[in-house]
């Protein structure tokens, strides 16, 4: 884990140094690279992760909430896959392999709930547009 932390710190330092050279007229640009890595934590306290979302819970959410949750889960999935790939390259063990299936299951359930809503839509054209958007996720 030490190698992973050291690699992550040097990687962030290089990315931060490189991003300082670029400037825009809008002001400071936020570096999205840290979102692909889990925040540093101490190894002494066990980290507890939640469960996947149930379809019955997702049915209570609005379209916008499901859309936001989809992108939160997508970022989580990308972070976990980046971490897994980085650790595999260093012959280290992925600490919580059960997290990735939970995220995937939640994403599948979101698509299922959105598809249910698209099927129930009385307007055929709007239903087709909804299905096209869902298949693009």
UniProtKB/TrEMBL annotation:
Compartments where located: Mitochondrion
Annotated signal sequence range: none
Highest taxon listed in the record's lineage: Eukaryota
Gene Ontology biological process terms, A to Z: mitochondrial translation
GO cellular component: mitochondrial large ribosomal subunit
SUPFAM superfamilies with a match to the protein in the record: Ribosomal protein L29 (L29p)
Keywords annotated in UniProt: Mitochondrion, Ribonucleoprotein, Ribosomal protein
The keyword Protease is assigned to this record: no
Gene3D superfamilies attached to this UniProt entry: 6.10.330.20
GO terms assigned for molecular function: structural constituent of ribosome
Family: Belongs to the universal ribosomal protein uL29 family.
Protein name, per record: Large ribosomal subunit protein uL29m
């Amino acid at each position: 884990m030490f190698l992973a932390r050291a690699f992550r710190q040097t990687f962030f330092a290089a990315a931060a140094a490189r991003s300082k050279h670029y400037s825009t007229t809008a002001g400071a640009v936020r570096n999205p690279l840290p979102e692909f890595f889990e925040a540093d934590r101490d190894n002494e306290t066990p980290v507890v992760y939640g469960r996947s979302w149930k379809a019955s819970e997702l049915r209570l959410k609005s379209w916008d909430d499901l859309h936001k949750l989809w992108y939160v889960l997508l970022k989580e999935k990308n972070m976990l896959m980046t971490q897994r790939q980085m650790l595999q390259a260093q012959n280290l063990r992925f600490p919580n392999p059960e997290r990735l299936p939970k995220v995937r299951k939640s994403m599948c359930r979101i698509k299922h709930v959105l598809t249910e809503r698209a099927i129930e839509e009385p307007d055929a054209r709007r239903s087709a547009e909804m299905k096209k958007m869902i298949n693009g996720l």
